Amino acid sequence: MTTLQITQRRSKAGTSPSQRATLQTLGLRRIGSAVEHTDGPAVRGMIRAVAHLVEVRSGTGKGSDG
Questions:
Q1: How high is the pLDDT of residue 62?
Q2: CA 20 to 30 Å from 37, out of 13, 28, 51, 61?
């Protein structure tokens, strides 16, 4: 499975309440914090909503596909 590493790069100050809630749902609490989520439509939608605040890197999931 593909995972996405999401890092908060900009402050949530001045953002809308829904964008702050999206950051909280993703698990991002402060600038520089990073989380990994499994790639999927719901996560992609959340990333799109706060794309100007985060940096996303894709990678492969842990474990074997065997």
A1: 64
A2: 13
